[in-house]
Specification:
Elements: E1 2-6, H1 14-25, E2 33-35, H2 49-52, H3 63-71, E3 74-83, E4 88-95, E5 101-106, H4 116-119, E6 128-131, E7 134-138, H5 147-155, E8 160-165, H6 172-186, E9 189-194, E10 198-199, E11 202-203, E12 209-211, E13 221-224, E14 227-231, H7 236-243
């Protein structure tokens, strides 16, 4: 299977970015799966997010959906700001090779240090979805720092986890290290797609990657500036777990509850 990371920079209007990223996702040679970054049409223009947010009825007919259906590929369509009855969420959208909206999930943890909580409300985890012959799931950027969420998805059957992100270049090694940790601890593929270029004075520069269930970064093939293809075998998840199965060896009775309170039982 050929998986493509589209890590371009933000240039122009949201509509222009939508078309640029969608076109890069399906340029020849067309991959089986294309992955886009977090908020790739707008970036974090927090003062304008409310006015730029899409409506629920807009989501099924986006250019990313058309690109997926016309080319018969899976489109992990990054994230977009979406209006709900309770506020704006940072939502990840996945389109099937038929061009249908196959999965949605939302950014659960908001990065308060940059004021994200002023423009968005915390989202809800969308769980897992059928992906090719295995099970997929998604988390968004800062969610990667919270292993409880990734573990929940792995225990629900996820074998590949997509992570659209806007991770600054200065912390790129941490981003890649966390991708490797999430992959190795559950023997899953972890796919991180980072924003490229510079945005609002912050250098991103792409640099995401694809991690094998054994914890090693997979080497990609350069397609064009900001676009790379990776060849993966989804059967490697089962093969890895046949040798070491960390999920099977869990002992949750010894872990206690995940709480901030100290255990004072002694």
């Amino acid at each position: 299977m050929i998986l493509r990371l589209v890590e371009l920079g933000i240039e122009g209007s949201p509509a222009e970015n939508m078309h640029r990223f969608s076109e890069a996702a399906v340029m020849s040679p067309v991959p089986d799966v294309a992955v886009l970054p977090e908020l790739f049409t707008t970036g974090y223009v927090l003062d304008s997010i409310s006015s730029l947010a899409l409506k629920e009825e807009d989501l099924r007919d986006l250019p990313t959906a058309s690109a997926a259906g016309e080319n018969g590929i899976w489109m992990i369509g990054g994230t977009l700001p979406v209006k709900t009855d309770f506020g704006v969420v940072n939502r990840m959208l996945v389109y099937s090779p038929e061009g249908t909206l196959a999965y949605q999930t939302e950014k659960v943890h908001l990065f308060r240090q940059m004021g994200e909580d002023k423009a968005f409300i915390p989202g809800r985890c969308g769980g897992t979805f059928p992906f090719m012959d295995i099970t997929g799931a998604g988390i968004v950027c800062y969610d990667l720092r919270f292993p409880e969420l990734s573990r929940r998805l792995a225990l629900a059957g996820a074998e590949i986890m997509f992570v659209p992100a806007q991770w600054p270049a200065g912390r790129l090694e941490l981003f890649r290290s966390l991708l490797r940790a999430r992959a190795a601890e559950a023997q899953i593929f972890a796919v991180g797609c980072n924003l490229g270029g510079e945005h609002l004075g912050v250098l991103f520069g792409g640099g995401g990657g694809v991690v094998h269930p054994g914890g090693k970064m997979i080497k990609g093939r350069h397609v064009m500036e900001g676009v790379s293809d990776f060849e993966i075998d989804l059967k490697d998840v089962g093969a890895m777990r046949s040798r070491i199965n960390c999920l099977l060896d869990r002992r949750p009775e010894e872990y206690g509850t995940l709480s901030r309170e100290e255990d004072r039982s002694d």
